[in-house]
Hints:
By secondary structure, the protein is an alpha/beta fold. It has two domains: 5-262, ANL, N-terminal domain (Rossmann fold, 3-Layer(aba) Sandwich), CATH 3.40.50.12780; 273-360, 2-Layer Sandwich (GMP Synthetase, Chain A, domain 3). 31% of the residues lie in helices and 31% in strands. It has helices at 11-22, 36-46, 76-90, 105-117, 128-133, 146-155, 157-161, 175-183, 235-241, 279-287, 319-327, 355-360; strands at residues 5-8, 29-32, 58-61, 71-74, 95-98, 122-123, 140-144, 165-168, 188-194, 199-203, 206-207, 211-216, 219-224, 230-231, 242-243, 246-256, 259-265, 269-272, 275-278, 292-302, 306-315, 338-341. The strands form six sheets. A seven-stranded mixed beta sheet has the order 6-5-7-8-9-10-11, with helices on both faces. Strands 12, 13, 15, 16 and 17 form a five-stranded antiparallel beta sheet that branches. The model has no long low-confidence stretch (mean pLDDT 93). Residues 283-352 form the AMP-binding enzyme C-terminal domain.
Amino acid sequence: MSSLRLVPGTPDAVLSALTAVLDGRGTPFAPVPADPAAAARVRQAAAPDEPLEHDCAVVLTTSGSSGEPKGVLLSRDALIASATATHDRLGGPGQWLLPMKPYFVGGLQILTRSVVAGLAPVVAGDSFTEAARRLTGPRRYTAMVPTQLARYLDTDLDALRSFDAIIIGGAATPAPLKARSAEAGVTAIPAYGMTETGSGCVYAGEPLDGTSVALDDGRILIKGTTLFSGYRLRPELTAEVLRDGWFRTQDRGEFMDGRLRVIGRVDDVVISGGVNVTLPTVQARLLEHPRVKDAVVLGVPDTEWGTRVVAFVIGDPGRDELRDHVAETLPRTWAPRAVIRLDALPMLASGKIDRQRLLEELR
């Protein structure tokens, strides 16, 4: 069996290691971020001293936003299949701008697509606009998380408009942000996927070529050429989520007009005071308030209610105003019982919300 090597999680180092492994002459690797705590999690999940148990080109560590970080084994074929299917959907290969960390799947796949296209990626620095100007390829692409898109709409709108397509992933794209992007003339394509699916595998509700999507009592199942090979040294967990070629995600969804709509996570429905509350629906309603810039809704254990619905909000509306706003379209029992106002939502390096830090705001 092959050994696994650790490489620095910088764009140049990851691109070099990735190019070699995609060419078939390199050895499997795991990119390691510079942050000591994050690096320790990678070393623990990747276990470089242990033999590799599956077909693997890269081991990526999940962000741990919803639990313990896991080492995800991605094969050369899965990486190439994802890059090829993405280019096919977008209209052909192009040059990519990298504004994301390459040790997460979104950033890694920007580099993979660059290698497959044979065009050098451009790494975004302090100025997104200046980086976009350095793109010279026949088609211009990038990918980012919703928070980045919202920021660049304020600061780098002309640069955003210059791209043939911008893939938005890593977290759900709020409806107001989608509308704002469209009105501004920005081609932003919401993508659904995760590390285990080799990055986004469903674009604007439609699976990429080679990917199939099904529902099992509302749970999203994914099958296809981009799936991971397994979890590093976690055979029981691998067997639990990979069944008959289908990956059982932790997300719920529904089909609307033939397109997949992601509703939220399986555990996003909480019981508060004996009432089932769907947290993403409450969050979406809060984001419709004209003075709410961003919001996250969590369920917090509570001795009186069982689970207390808490909203973390960027904006100036007070608790009663937001409760009334939610109750205009949803049951009043769904309205958040606590509202925590913040200047900014804490983010992980992957671009996902740091839920643990939010919970610390309540202590």
